[in-house]
């Protein structure tokens, strides 16, 4: 490669501060996890004569002289702002390549490789003008030009302008007049443009931001990987759409905005959507039309879908909104955030929409340029970027982060957009846009199929009383009820005949269908007899908890219109006008006559809480109760041999699930006594004494059961085969511990509103493994039981796409009649099922999504979403993270009233918690705005209905008071930091205890604040320090404490109390090599990395010296605990020496694992015929893929030889030099014998390893004096650490570490989590 560089003439001028768009582009490109973000590559071909090197050099220099954006560099000014300076003379980095020796196919391959290498080299406008040019001789009179430029220095319109001027200069040497306005003038004029109109516009548009939600609220782990998908809307569909738009005065852009807003609304389950809308930035001033530079802005564009019900209203309003927004395209994103009152860390949008009438190639052709085979290669950093080019056909490109959004999800989204645009052209413009279908027929059918139960029950007799009588007649002497307190057994005959006698008494009193009979009896046989008697009489029962206040129960009886009450003699409730019956031991062989079975007959009434505070009376049906019993019998696999615990409170519908399926299966009900409420031991004694096989426990009690068994292990009764839990959220941490405590007991988690007949969906844990999306994931609520089906719906009533969040609606036989005497609420919650003629759906008010396994994931109440400081917070997400803490058994997250309002987590734990440690660790898992104050309580207060009593939760002390009590200094240092914060936030004053994020600070302002603090005070801070210590007081306290921060130790995943796994020396960019392993080992084993980073001096690379630094780091920050060291390739020698030093200091190295590394004894490969045979075996197994892999290896090696990687900064050694220095260090190192366990992991795709290599454990046997193990892992040299393959390594590490070393304490103070700003 030959480079020609023009040395700049001295002298620069300041053009002004960088825009928010420029800063955002630079920040994204500087992120080591996405180095290709916003690096633009334009490839164009032309005749070789046109691209003559001398002519090309002259044309680019002239272009740079007349367009100041090509002469700009960036730097920080004394106030910490990023500013642009304009060089007096241009710098040109022109590189020349010759590919004329290669054919067309080979040139395509070379171009692909070179583009990748060019992206990897990157550009830094802080060091030089952010662009370069490469001229490539293709032979046969053709040449290609690659123009590489940082997006912060240009935009799409500028590319069109500059490439047009370049072509004109190259072809006919025409020298146009320079642009009317330079980029520097644009930057200087923008701040002076009016803001008042913009402030009012954005404040108005972004009202109701709690009605929008991000497309993907949780950041997935792993390095972002951008992928692109493309689609075309055909010409005939666009012609129809254009006719519609012309009639409404709207444009294609408005149609795209509407389509994407509908897609977002249906995927997020919200009535509004907010996207980032890219504007060219030139409509503000006509003189900017031909200005080259980064003028674009990406500003929030919020669409209130619910306020615009018809397609015409939606499109015409979007047109008006777009025109008004263009007048304010000069404002900055930080200003918009401040005007809208949004929290500094809250993203305004996570998807971006860009529309242009023509592609760059089409625009250049229209300008008369002769460029051919033009290709634009670029990559953004948004979760999704929708790029649309209009015209006779509409070309749509969807770029997405494949780590957070799967290829399948992205492809379906793209299909949704194209179907909506097509449907708009054929739609009635005055009809509701909600009628536009975006799902394919196959997708619709798949969603409906997901919501159907796996095992549909047969139609059975819809009368529980008749079904019970049939069971009693078939097995009259079989035990039906076993009283836990007395041990008394009642058989089916006795139970049936006593119920007959009581039913006769009810019938004699004139009670029958639709009459309600209250039952206020203690748990036991009399209560069960009473329910059966009411059903036998054809009436409906109202179960009551007799221990509750008589006045409260009387109100329930009155609300339900109860005509009779079955209660003990002398009960306070018995006084009154209604009929009172007492339990009796009378028996009759037959029940009184009753009407024929009717699925729609009222069977029971149960009260549930209401949003107004008054309980609602739900009317349960006979057919639904019978269908539920059939579904539960099948799902719980109930047989006459079972004994089922009746645990639930008598006023809850779960009580019906414990009784009716049991009796209709011919099994025995075991009503509990008081022992389980006294202690968990009492429950276990009861289960053992009565040989209970099935227990249905509330989640709150089950959590306590797990906590007690963890503290004091005790075997479960051998009779117990199934535990069902539900009613509340099941935390993942206790669930994983339960699987270890009760491996032989089946586990199910159920969900079901009272309005849909008890449990209507259920999830069963698999026999092997945890069955979750990952080890810290929420517990699913599963698939529907046989009597129900489920659908997820968007606010407009359409089906929620798979992977999206939607409102959970329940249908099928499970749906109850509705609310007694409340037709308004019944009509609002119970509607006709559009996908099942004659059926009904119930709106549960809960949110859910379908996971990849086809199970429902509960996302919380639709009305439980918290809004705090302008940010929407899902408390269930915080509860899930806290729930993984081993000591925590229950947790509730809510907003405590102010002023100021605060996010609080009330936790119940088995031991005192270190709230500071927990808060610090949560910073590694959740963004700063989702960090709660942690308040430990003995128990969560409950209402009489068993729900959290929010009013009784204790309020935490104020955050300011907590800081002062902790000794945070109120000194000059804190006041200086507060003054810097006020300047950056552009406010008069900032209190020293104020939170930067809560005042509107964001990631862009954080960078400026850190720089400004350093310049004004000399204090060195990082943006991550501000994330952990957001107030001036907290920052000052951190600086005053002066705790040493780790130099080399990096937390990759800090959760877990098992032996920590330490990855040594070679970690990959942003520790990406070991992140898959860390994810699989969570939540049991924390994973850290040790790395010296990029060396400034190659002499620093010495194995004993570096290992000593690593040793000191572990001694300081992870002392007094065993460790597991792992390393890949030549990093194994650094890990080996570190293990030696730790052992010499008396530290326990539980395991040293070296991965696919050649040992000191060498790794002899196969040669000659054995190597050929090995190739043939691989070819037979993998086919052409084997040859492709070999070619890929050779190509990578050749490319590496041809292009040494650049150093990250001028004056530093190149990457090639660093690698060579590491190799030299390994060659100079003389390892000593090692006497502790050493495991050598070999990549099983290393087919060239000879038998001698394997016998010597890849050459490590010469130094191993302790246990030496060789294990194969699936994959190649580095792919053994990739998702899927790495599971084998994790399984082996878990097994090997299970009994090595005690459960260790948390890391020593001073070790920060790997937390960044949101």
From TrEMBL:
Which SMART domains does this chain map to? PKS_PP
Q: Where is the composition biased (Basic and acidic residues)?
A: 1194-1206
Molecular function via GO: catalytic activity; phosphopantetheine binding
Gene Ontology cellular component annotations, sorted alphabetically: cytoplasm
Report any one BP term from Gene Ontology.
secondary metabolite biosynthetic process
Q: Which domain of life is it from?
A: Bacteria
Residues forming the Carrier domain are 968-1043
Q: Which residues form the signal peptide?
A: none
Keyword terms of this UniProt record = Phosphopantetheine, Phosphoprotein
UniProt xrefs under SUPFAM superfamilies: Acetyl-CoA synthetase-like, ACP-like, alpha/beta-Hydrolases, CoA-dependent acyltransferases
Name the cofactor(s) required for activity, per the record. pantetheine 4'-phosphate
Matching entries from CDD domains are given as: A_NRPS (cd05930)
- Region of interest called Disordered, as start-end residue ranges on this chain: 1194-1213
Q: What is the species of this protein?
A: Paracoccus tibetensis
The yes or no answer to whether the keyword Protease is present is no
Any keyword Phosphoprotein?
yes
Name the Gene3D superfamilies on file.
Answer: 3.30.300.30, ACP-like, alpha/beta hydrolase, Chloramphenicol acetyltransferase-like domain, N-terminal domain of ligase-like, Nonribosomal peptide synthetase, condensation domain
Name of the protein this chain belongs to: Amino acid adenylation domain-containing protein
Native organism taxonomy: Bacteria, Pseudomonadati, Pseudomonadota, Alphaproteobacteria, Rhodobacterales
PROSITE patterns reported for this sequence: AMP_BINDING, CARRIER, PHOSPHOPANTETHEINE
